[in-house]
What we know:
- The chain is an all-alpha fold.
- It has one domain.
- It has 7 helices and no strands.
- The longest helix has 48 residues.
Amino acid sequence: MNTNPNQEENKAKFENLIPSPFKDASRLGIYLGLFFALKFLCIIFFLDFPLLVPVFLGATLIVPFISYRLTKSYRERYFVDKPFSFRLAWVHGTWLYFFATIVLLLPVYYFYTRTLPEAIPVFQQNFDELYALKSEMKEQVFSLFQGDPMDQVRLYVSSDHLFENLLGCVTRNFVVGGLLSIINAYFLRRA
């Protein structure tokens, strides 16, 4: 068979290319984001179903292990006999958290625009009932929050703070994801 030397050289270069962690992390980050969304639903509905609190805590504790497993699957799929650098593992893990956060923004937006504003009258009624039972508690709560806590909740869910809340969600998840990815990258690196 007559082969061109340039074709052989191009084939060798193609086989040695490092696949981008971006593409893999975007696909797997969507799955991690769906897990984050389910976890966030536990927060939204914990008042109606108190059993969701331990479910949320357990799900929160296993997130770093899920991220580790997803980054490890990337390494096993594309770097079987090749070195897998610390930087590449960290970038993949950080992108995982970034794409997961994008998916998480949908239920967070719904929570701040629909669920929480509708729940404020219920919270106010619960606080009023509690204050009627224990009048000294009202003074303690007002001094702790430097005013009525429900006023602060109303301010927090106002449209002025919506962008800040969403940006805070992205920032927290991305920074924490980057820090946790450092630990995963340390264990997954391979020279």
